[in-house]
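re: that chain from earlier
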Amino acid sequence: MPRFLLGWLLGLGGNAIGLLLAWLLLGSDFSINGPIGFIVSLVVFAILSAFFTWLVFKGLDKKAATILPLTGLISTFLALLVTALLTDGLSISGWGWLWGTIIVWILSMVIWVLPGPWRSYRAERITKAK
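^ sequence. v structure.
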């Protein structure tokens, strides 16, 4: 399995856990509408999150590593916003926007710091880019 795909699947798992945790903790402010709606929303969210992360990161200066965590937070919010607008599987209101974004982002960050082959791949890409 290609390393990129392995990393994306790991991110998909982290996003699934984050969305479910936000749903459990936030109640009516962050609701998931059925298992099929969850799966559709999860896939749309994961694709959008990867796209927005790439888009925001591409616009940054290479020396702007200090704001790198903010790119993930912004990308998570944008992906949640577009997913909620495009699918019927995810409904967010009120404080769910703030806390849902933070919960999903934190879970995504925790998943990405786990050691594994996707980490060495990212390190190789960064080393080759210099």
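Residues 121-125 have pLDDT under 50 and may be disordered.
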